[in-house]
Amino acid sequence: MTGNDVGCFERITGGDGNDKTDSETKCLIERDNFVIDSCPDSSTLKINGDNDNMSPKVNGKVNGSLKTNGNINNTGRLDSTPPRRYDPTQEVIFPPELKVSDDLDRQTLMFQGPRVTYWRPTSFTHLVTLKHHHPHAKIIVGNTEVGVEVRFKNQLYRVLINPSKVPELTSVVVQGSGVVFGASVTLTAVYDVLRQQVKTQPEHKTRTFSAILEMLNWFAGKQIRNVASLGGNIMTSSPISDLNPILLAGGASLNFTSLQGGERRVVMDDKFFTGYRRNAVRPTEVLVSVHVPFTCQEEHIQSYKQSRRRDDDIAIVNAAMKVRMIPHTTTVHHLSLVFGGMAATTVIAPNTMKELVGCSWDDSLLPKATQLLLEDLPLDPSAPGGMVEYRQALTLSFFFKFYLSVRRWLSECVPAQVDPLTEDQLTAIRLYHRPATSTSQTFQQVPEDQKEHDLVGRPVVHTSAYKQTTGEAVYVDDLPRLENELHAALVISSRAHAKILSIDETHALELEGVEAFFCARDLPGEMNVTGVATMDDQVFAKEKVECVGQVVGVVVARDHARARQAASLVRICYQDLSPPIITIEDAIKEESWWGPWTIRRGSMEDGFNMATNTLEGEMRIGGQEHFYMETNSHIAVPKGEDGELEMFSSTQNPSGTQQLVAKALGLQANRVVVRVKRLGGGFGGKETRTSVVSVPVAVAAARLNRPVRIWLERHEDTLVTGGRHPFLCRWKVGFTPDGRLTALQAHIYVNAGCTLDLSTFLVQKALFTFDNAYNIQNMCVTGYACKTNLPSNTAFRGFGAPQAVMFIEDIISQVAAFLKMDPVQIQERNMYQAGNKTIVGYRLDHCTITRCWRQVMDTSLVHVLKASVQKFNRENTYRKQGLAVTPAQFGIAFERFFNQAGALVHIYTDGSILLTHGGIEMGQGLHTKMIQIASRVLGVSAENIYLSETATDKVPNTTATAASVSTDLLGMAVMKACNELVSRLQPYVNKDPAGTWKDWVNAAYFDQVSLSATGFYKNPCIIDFDFETMTGRPFNYYAAGAAVTKVEVDCLTGDHTILRTDIVMDVGNSLNPAVDIGQVEGAFVQGTGLVTMEELCYSPEGVLLTRGPGAYKIPGFQDIPCEFHVSLLKDSPNPQAVFSSKGVGEPPLLLAASVFQSIKAAVGAARQDHHLDPVFRLDSPATAERIRLACQDPLIHKVKLPTHKTTKPWSVTV
Ligand SMILES: Cc1cc2nc3c(=O)[nH]c(=O)nc-3n(C[C@H](O)[C@H](O)[C@H](O)COP(=O)(O)OP(=O)(O)OC[C@H]3O[C@@H](n4cnc5c(N)ncnc54)[C@H](O)[C@@H]3O)c2cc1C
Fold this sequence. Notes:
The chain is an alpha+beta fold. Helices cover 28% and strands 23% of the residues.
């Protein structure tokens, strides 16, 4: 993606059933190939914003006619200039003037440090001589493998040799027999060469090349392929190497050279790999080149890869299969079946390969091959990586695809002997191809007579957008180093439940540059006690540890690397306590929980009596890692007197940080100032859990009286700070034959981890949301916050509501499956209407859920989509499509006393305004909206308004920025402060109506009028819910939305593609449609990650195994809907919030339930073909593994797992 595709507001005209009125604007962008759809419509929507702070351009596109602005022409008419096609020659290049001479590139280099010597020879002889003298030296090319070993596996290679300037290793030679690649040739170069060969050589010669090309599309990302080498992939000898299976199947050979042994040619076969990441190469040998042979007429080869995510992910299983036929027959002459991910090395299926020789390639071959493959590729139930059944199933699925693909090829080679494949079979082997993504965004424009300066309702650009795009935006760790500054690293526990016998920091302190170590010994009594609602946590674990990742101490050193090195040298002796409680089931067994809390209405007895049928079930939803871009970063700066301390913190909760830091230091809060400029994302993960990092750093800084900085590595942040709570739901529902739900009983259990944190409120939010959009009169839901020995889980966008919506939507789909009805009928039969009361007793006077529902059904042409899905499913066996419509209602408010906010506005005598409020900007556009509000109230243009930071000395006692409520609360506070200033200035406006803003400000100043005002807002309407009396008013209002999603599932691999999503979201009168639509799209995609691919794996001992982007996958570009249409509901003012707007941060995430349900519908269609029960369980996330296993086709039944009850699994579901 480039800045070009950020967004341009265009109108789609005519013909698509989506015509809008003049007051609506719509934009269509095709992203992947950067084609902007041509726009035949006329006129312009233009503004000029020369305010750098808030230039009201909509689309990030600075040049040309697509610049939109919002303040001038409100005719709703658009620029008639056709959008320009993407022109790759206009990409930013590296400026030639800045290129330095390449003289150095031709020279041999050697760097020597205290621990490592690095060589870069330029001649082949020098290279082999070096390797001769340093047999244990590591050769590095792209460093993409060695770098990981050094950084994450603590490997130390004392001699490194980089051969990237040795011509013999970088050349490519096309020979009569194939292509010879130098071992250091990058994968990008391999791709280019092979593509050229495929274009120019006869097709039959380049079949291996095509298989490699297909695989390279899914090999890592472009950045890695640009530096990673072919030789590096082979020599790493990883069992999940993507290229090794193809090279083996394709008959590649390798040329090695050593100084004494000379040249040696090795054919890549199953003897080449000798163990996990080991091969038959001698220590003094250098891999010089790789010969990849041409294929012949009688050969056919295919490669396969299945991973958690399509883009930039390593394989779960990969394979390459090549067959050679006896000429003009369907008889197998030779077969190569090579697999990755099935053992400690790349392996072949020896017996299958042998036994199938001489067989005819027809249906009789399949059962034999399947049986043989299972015998050839056994997996132990505790095999590293888990997914044992799925991995075995994949080997069969890949072979089945290969079988069909060979049949198709034979049908062309020997048509008299082999029939062409059916359409269904062709679809089964279709290679994944994603169309260019197209999106549309529809919103209502501001009234034509709205004043020019007034930015409320206009799609203005986020105030930091350009700075963030260019990298100029400042985050905590961008702040310049301070004099005397030190760096901190956390010492964390490696046991889930153990007594601390001793802590020995001697070795750490012996390291040069290490200054100090602090632990519980340094924080006596109450100073070490911390927590959120309940003080049940410790700054440093004192006598025992309760999870892996608990902070035990902090090391302070001269730099980040030294601090981390020292932290790893702190020795902690443990004595294990009772077996840790890791899973929800463990907790239920031990009755280890906080709560429970029960919400009920009506009578369960009556409800179940009214029902003609009941269903019971269980469903699980996994946790989620926040994966914000900026990991926890904090700088604590002692001010030198009276204990004063300034904290620069990546927190959503500055006042919370201030309080906990002050407490740990034994100070009053008035000595601690917490400052936050912006966060690189928070999503709830920086609401309370940042204190486990910031407080230790503050302690270190205060004790040493020196500034201390910390930033966490990604894997550390993921481990220490917790994430979204995993949920388990056990439910029973009663219903009538026409699908009316008469009773619903449920127990929800959340894995809270080892401290309570915000879990009470989270469980309650889940209970309050369990009705979602449905008027179920008899309901009883009980929630438990299970105490386990995992890091404490915490707030995450949606805060329990996404899980509640997932559960109720799943229950509805189960009822629909049972009644053989369309879920839409059940949803509509039970949906809330205006005037109904929700489960918390809130009367829905402004009920918009049905409007969103109807509109999304209309604009998506759901009946057409449904017909197309049904047709597809009738015609296809191996791929299925699914469609789901999901409504979502989300109550907006904090717990009672949190519903307050403050603002501080200063006007300076030059007319400029400094706006401060208690909220945190974390990418969600809060500051942008506050400036818009101030522009309206003060009547000045945004260029005069600046928002610098959030700080506890400007606005005290702030509520954390969370719960989708910040704009509502802070917007009112800003409005009040601005109103106060307006009223103070009014006399001067009256006196001089023709004057300017600056004139009035100066007049007031000279009249000794204060030009600074605070604004305070509290929402008096919120009353905490009382679980005794079932009364209260926990929400200010409901946000609502609805989504239609269509997916396609590959039943053989479990892969899925979101073909289309349409969303209609009620955000009231949008304060900023550009920001709001961004929130809708972002939240939806984050929710999609939650319900499809983001899977946290824990070892049975409670160690988080998925700690970084290598193992934990969030959605990539290939995972967003191919077609993505977002509309904001028209004419929907909300009387409960600032300028009739609504909160938007969290509610759209709930709509990702439509992705889950559409996947489930597709799986249901596959199961229908096999006459299986339409009511079935599918847990979330719907990973490829779960989808594949749920499809339950005959291949799956062949996979039989050895059932050793005693075997310890690689990971457990928590
Ligand atoms: C983010 C990421 C994503 C990745 N995705 C994938 C993926 O999708 N599929 C996949 O298969 N791999 C993947 N990898 C692994 C890695 O990128 C590949 O194995 C890559 O080809 C290694 O090449 P390199 O040049 O970076 O190797 P290096 O790290 O430089 O070296 C790797 C090994 O090869 C040895 N070596 C290199 N050249 C020679 C030589 N001439 N003679 C003897 N030994 C030599 C080195 O000593 C070292 O042991 C990924 C890695 C990362 C970091």
